[in-house]
Write a structure and sequence with these properties.
Blueprint: H1 2-9, E1 31-36, E2 93-95, E3 166-167, H2 192-195, E4 200-205, E5 210-211, E6 214-219, E7 224-231, H3 240-245, E8 249-250, E9 254-258, E10 263-266, E11 270-271, E12 282-284, E13 305-308, E14 314-317, E15 329-332, E16 335-336, E17 344-353, E18 360-369
Parallel strand pairs: 4-18
Antiparallel strand pairs: 1-6, 2-3, 2-18, 5-16, 6-15, 7-12, 7-17, 8-16, 9-10, 9-15, 11-12, 13-14, 17-18
Amino acid sequence: FSVVLELGMGVGLKLFGAGCLMGSIVGVSSHGSVLFPPTRNAIDSTLPPWKGATIGPNNSQQFPQTGHWKYMPFGCDCSNGTNVCESGQGCFWFSQGCTIGCEACDGNGERIPGRNVCNSTKQPTNNNPKFRTSGRDIPPGSPQDGTRYFPWRAPGNAPVSDPCGLAGGTWFAQTLGGDFNTTMYAKLGDKGSAVLPYRPTGVRWSRGGVGKPTWYIRANHGGGYSYRLCKYEPGVNVTEACFQQTPLDFAPKSRIVYRNGSSVDFTPILLSEGTTPEGSMWAMNPIPANPSDYSQVCPHPGGPVDAPTAYLHWGKNPTDCSGVWPTTLYVEDTVIIPADIEPGEYVLGWRWDCEETTQIWQSCSDITIV
């Protein structure tokens, strides 16, 4: 499977020092997805072998997961508190080969510092170290700034291949890109907005109130994310332009929830300058891959913590709120529903712009605004 090759060989950029660029390999391609509201992207959780799967890569340490190891060496292992995490192939819907200032992604997941898929002259807008998840000590825009064209450096500006993601992230086989198990719903390269069925969740959020979506990281590459709404119209595919019309603001309260049900509240780091659409609010990834990258949000981090890795084995994250494989927790956010929005059926879009790769992860969930 190409995913194993990708995760074993993929270059995740780590930048050190103002004068040098080092190809430190974190060995992963970022993967993640929304857990709640349940997504269209996780529709495979209703099918065998994903339905109710709890088979971990180490049978002596059962772990709730639906990325069944016999069918996908790298599954969407995740934690949903004390509940089974029915994620299907939700973490395999994304866009890649996407850089700022371009009109389209090229689908190529190669990890090249400073990669710019369209030779754009656009400069990064996210340069404040406070909002950076990699290379905070590198002069922004300098030749040593290897992530300057990557999505999180101008949140929301890079294009996507589809607003709900592509199955496997690309339309052609390659080492550095997601693989995808063909199902009755999708095959590699399919557009989520076109093939994933309407999936009513029963989730109802009130105008002028808040919603509490949750998401998880399967493999960590920094960056940050945004939630958006698009009015659901039967027979009409959602678009990125529609999502950009209604970005949601965050309330200053989020929390990390662990697989034993315990939780830690934290204040998200929010960015609204230099974002697309203008003024839209984005949250920085609160889980550093390494505790030295930036401050951890848990006040008393413990660890190391055992967690599934991409190699059918269990590995260790350095703490319980950091790591390349932070699959033993999820993040719950609080988003504000506009008071003047029209009630009705909506698609909640989630977009995670990576900083260390040219990838953007996406999810689409069906909800009702009342």
